[in-house]
Amino acid sequence: MSDTRLITVVMALYNPNINWLEEELASIQKQTFQNFQVYIWNDNPQDSRPYEDLFRKYLKDIPFRYFSGKKNLGSNKVFEKLTALTDTSYIAFCDQDDVWLPNKLEVLIGLLQKKDVTLACSDMYVIDENSFVVADSITQIRPRQVIYRGEDIMPHLLAKNFITGCTVMMRTDIAQMALPFPKVFFHDWWLSLIAGLSGTIEVSLQPLMKYRISTENQSKPFANVSCKQDYVSQYIKSYQTLLNRLQNIFLRDNRLSLYNRWADVRMRYFQSPNIQDAVFLWKIRYLSKYTTLFELVLPYLPDKIFSFLVKKIKAGR
To answer: Which CATH architecture has domain 2-212?
Structure first.
């Protein structure tokens, strides 16, 4: 099938809202660039709804393959498996509840075919559970999220992710170089880091899709954090693990040196706050301003105040 196709769109499926899934599929069918195929993986073995009939109805002109796992894997592992199965030149990642603008694939493939570009992505409109547009940019909903471009991309991407997976199209060989995906972070950050350290990332500030914000979204700030030790485990220790993985792949890449030191100082400062480490963190606060400010006061925060701040952050304030 893929010998005449340029792009594979990969979708992870888990107990989808059928109305939202139909909207997504209809928008995929309407793409102005049609040289692509779709791979779908159902991650709920107990879900026996006739999805293939639905795909045939909406993906009228688009070839697709449907996979159903024997056990629940989680979205990271599903996208890992779909990435390994992809045999086209490019791969595009897709959620089950968004809406694509008709030119999404056309714009992204145009960016990717520039010299040395390994990944292309875009901003997004934001829609609610009734498909009404509530924001013209993801940054209006997530005020701490900044979209960087050009030379600013890697310095900030190495510190904190700002690329959303469902906007991404990238070279398949680079995506497969990232296998297996780490368990500690969502796949989009890992793929973006591998792409950025391997070549160039192009970002379209023109929104190319409508991103649905609902109670079913997986990616929420501090989703599993309830105490300071949770934060350290999920945001400091796991970041050290991420950098170690990158260092093993990009052995002589000097761009990682500052971030290795940053990771070590963050951990040391939390365990034993001191002026020297605080000064270092303050000097490089440009890497991630909100993270630095939060972690400078973190060791001193009483548990009740920490819990209060976490609730505010979870609420998007």
So the answer is: Alpha-Beta Complex (3.90)
